Amino acid sequence: MTDMSHTLTRRQVLEALALLTPAVAGRAGAQPAAAPPAPLDPSVLPPGIRSRLVSNVNGIRMHVLESGFDAAGRRPLVLLVHGFPELAYSWRKVMLPLAAAGYHVIAPDLRGYGRSGGTDVTFDDDLGPWRTLNEVTDMVALVSAFGSRSVSAVVGHDFGSPVAAWCAVSRPDLFRSVVLMSAPFAGPPALPFDTAGRTDAGPPAAADTIYDDLAKLTPPRKHYQRYYSTREANDNMLHAPQGLHSFLRAYYHMKSADWKQNQPFPLKARTAEEWARLPRYYVMDLDKGMAQTVAPEMPSAAAIAACKWLPEEELRVYSAEYARTGFQGGLQSYRVGTSGRFASDLLIFSGRSIDQPSMFIAGKSDWGAYQNPGALERMQKNACTQMTGVNFVEGAGHWVQQEQPERVSELLIAFLQRNRS
């Protein structure tokens, strides 16, 4: 006869192991996994926009803002892709007008941002998840998760602009049109052409010395994208001497139309001397971080109180999110771009163009359209074969959809309605 008093059930064994796990992890130096973030508090969102967490989007949980949701799923889908250092929240002012025009609008926090997965990344972690084609896969997987087989338009701002462009290049069947904002898309990289008859390797490609040339200027300078690729960039911004909230206030101010020194013009060539004509937030002093670069341009208390496009309570949404996550998740994409490590991934699209309807929008006070000389022209002549307009919006700098949301909404709705199928 079995003594049942000394027999443990399976449930009791599992419960005992669960109690032991934290102690074992602690002895091994491991930390218990942090609880996943909740959706954004509805109080920080305009009525009619909801925050959702969508699981299993290309291997991560993705946070999405959504408007114009229709239980029957009959509305055409519009996908909004933010830049750096922004969030899905950056689209809050255009989502409701688009929804009112009849669209289902979704805006994700990109991988490594806000409440999406990847924010726990460190500088020494693998860059692979941030390569361009995997970021495109994130967008394709998100659209699939929402049960859509067609996107009326993918709209990308700043870093989101190349993401949107590559969505359009790689999946024209899915992304029916594209709007690029602030950052022109000059097209896929080129492969050597008509070289089969050559008996030699041809002249070697000229070395790109512009970053060395910038460092030789007086005073020495550096490009912000190279700076964003360094180990110290995250810590410099996250632990800015003036405080994170004040850093973001000065950064957003300096790149907006409120900073009156923003009077952009085309540069003649991609040389250090021409790049040095860009504001310091693009071509920085060699010995300064971004926190030190923008600090002298901190707006006055009166100017902050008068800022209608980004009042303090809205800026606090950004500063609270970045205080929690840091910037490294967003900086990983800059590291991919400057390292060139995954550049060969894109050669498969050599010779391709964006043949869907397209449009470009930028603030009239935004240098972003000009920082890469010739890119704006190549976008219009070669990269986009059905570009319907290039629009520079009065009263806006780099944050065009936040600074002038009414005009941007008008342009987007008119574009969508012209190309609605």
Note down, in words, how this protein is organized.
With 421 residues, the protein is of the alpha/beta class. The protein folds into two domains: 223 residues, Rossmann fold (3-Layer(aba) Sandwich); 125 residues, no CATH class. Helix content is 35%, strand content 15%. It is built from 16 helices and ten strands. Strands 1-2-4-3-5-6-9-10 form an eight-stranded mixed beta sheet, sandwiched between helices. Helix 2 links the parallel strand 3 and strand 4. The longest helix is centred in the N-terminal third of the chain and has 18 residues. The radius of gyration is 24 Å and the shape is globular. The N and C termini lie far apart (77 Å). The relative contact order is 0.14. The N terminus is likely disordered.
Spatial extent as radius of gyration: 24 Å
How many strand elements? Answer: 10
Instruction: Based on the coordinates given, report the CATH architecture of the largest domain.
Output: 3-Layer(aba) Sandwich
Helix/strand-derived class? alpha/beta
What percent of residues adopt helix (DSSP H or I)? Answer: 25-40%
Runs with pLDDT <50, length 5+? 1-33
Q: Estimate the mean pLDDT confidence.
A: 91
- The CATH class assignment of the largest domain is Alpha Beta
- Give the count of helical stretches: 16
CATH topology of the largest domain: Rossmann fold
CATH-level-4 superfamily name of the largest domain: Alpha/Beta hydrolase fold, catalytic domain
User: Which geometry do the CA atoms define?
Assistant: globular
The ordered H/E elements are HEEEHEHEHEHEHHHHEHHHHEHEHH
Query: Main sheet?
Result: 8 strands, mixed
Compute the separation of the termini in Å: 77 Å
Strand content: 15-25%
What is the number of domains?
2
Strand order of the largest sheet: 1-2-4-3-5-6-9-10
